Amino acid sequence: MTSTDDALLGSVRSPADLRRMPVGQLPALATEIRDFLVDKVSKTGGHLGPNLGVVELTIALHRVFDSPEDRILFDTGHQAYVHKILTGRQEGFDLLRQRGGLSGYPDRAESEHDTIENSHASTALSYADGLAKAYALKGERRHVVAVVGDGALTGGMCWEALNNIAASDRPLVIVVNDNGRSYSPTIGGLASHLASLRLSPGYEKVLDLVKESLGRTPLVGAPLYEVLHAVKKGLKDAVAPQAMFEDLGLKYVGPVDGHDFVALESALAKAKRFGGPVIVHALTQKGRGYGPAETDEVDCLHQSAQFDPETGKPLAAPGRSWTAPFVEELVAVAGERPDIVGVTAAMAGPTGIEKMRAVYPERVFDVGIAEQHAVTSAAGLALGGLHPVVAVYSTFLNRAFDQVLLDVALHGQAVTFVLHRSGITGPDGPSHYGIYDMSILGVVPGLRLAAPRDETTVREEFREAVGVSDGPSVVRLPTGSLPADLPAVERLGEGIGAVDVLRRDGSADVLLVAVGSFAHLGMEIADRVAGQGYGVTVVDPRWVRPVSDRLVELAAGHRLVVTLEDGVRAGSVGSALDQALSDAEVHVPLRDLAVPVGFHPHGTRGEILSDLGLTAQDVARQVTEWVAGADADHTAPGSLPADQLRRPAR
Q1: pTM
Q2: Which of 371, 461, 464, 565 is an active site residue?
Q3: Is 313 among the catalytic positions?
Q4: Which of 128, 200, 293, 469 sits in a 20 to 30 Å window from 176, CA-based?
Q5: HEC profile of 159-218
Q6: Active-site residue 204, yes or no?
Q7: Is 490 marked active-site?
Q8: Cα dihedral angle (242, 244, 249, 251), rounded to 10 degrees?
Q9: Which comes out higher in pLDDT, residue 71 or 301?
């Protein structure tokens, strides 16, 4: 593309510059922005498709509204790259999602134009409702704009917020960015309704579509259709869906071509002048303007690693992922057991559930971006005699903790949760780190939680999980490529209570409990500590909740226990083991090494773990110092000085 030093894009350093630009130059600016996005994201990786689709929409927003005086909120935030470009952050894209560079989501520390760090879906309308209320109470005449993807509208929080927004007269503009997709094509009744609007059919055709859709809804469908047909309020013309929005009390503008500057600015200006809550429905094309994204049937290059900008193909073939053996085992188990069903929340591709749907389409349910509903619906499936496998990202299950606790566990329902991208995941930043699952889920009565260390244990522990019949089971899978298999030298016990011993030296100085993907790190640490003359036993607990009796027995025979995990330290596996040792009156000191509580910045996984001191060199040095300190104090086996019992907070 042309250098930003002498191109239109180079002249836009703030939204004010954009507002001074003649309308006739905007199409050329949009082309430059798309070229810029492809060039930069091809080098760093990131969310390409969603941002290619919102170029004209974001330009129009910044021409009609005065950010940051007017607040523009993005839901979800991965569609905010163009917003960053237009608010003075072009240079930061050379390090997008890298240490010291721009976040892949809005970031309040980066710019006054970023209001919320919104990387989980369906929250912006609630933020916007609160902001509008605050400005009204303070007497400030400021507009609030929430840009909401049609996928986000499948989340229940959006509708809770709409219910409140519609009851007010405060100025709030809701822009529905409707591209028909979230990661994959948007799922659900709302998606079908918006799809019918995209077609802009004639009046009678709309009636037929609504009648057909509502006719499939038991009890309420037919009566509701008759009301609509009689009143004709919701279908008074071809494109105004009052049945969905105006009956709530929300004014509606659209559908608007989301790539037509004149239409967009006109619609947004009307919404701004109205002075109350307004829906602007913009139709956009995900991946627009870049051939490889437009023709990508899976997700329009929604999120990509580094790629060749000419072809859109990845520069390097990805390694075998932790998801791969889970998917293979899921399909195999589904073939053996007709009660196995799959559930996901708009993540069928990334979580592997799509592979099961290809073989057993009637036994897979994608509920849209609605994790709470996914979990309770899974509880219903279990109540009905099936065994659901719910596959979601670890960070997204945080939103459904209440449902896991009270809708699944309280009812003793056998639901298996497979948590992808667990632990420190890197470039997507703190909102996407799967570091909370072991702590949060540790308080759920009857829940079993497994942390596989390699491909063999993924398969084995998943099969054990779906064998649980009296409560929830969880299998957590890290991000990245699978390591080489790490065979156990000994297995103590059987089934879920079994513990794998990976290394056992002659003397029992240190028991190193390495959780999940940290097993390989534990072995490297053991080599370093053993090199200092101390005996190390390395154990993989396999199932970390509940704490195995075998693990407690092992701990009793060592001078020091060190736990190593990629979850948050508060409520950690180490804490649970410490409590189990106390309950068993085993007085062996324990040091727990985990992720400190905090919102850790984005970077590579290796960079972050290094910052946290969770490397072989750092941990080995600490362990050696602890044991050496005990020797210097002539401490008897099975004890250490009181001031060494806990690792100080970092």
Answers
A1: 0.82
A2: 371
A3: no
A4: 293
A5: HHHHHHHCCCCCCEEEEEEECCECCCECCCHHHHHHHHHHCCCCHHHHHHHHHHHHHCCC
A6: no
A7: no
A8: -50
A9: 71
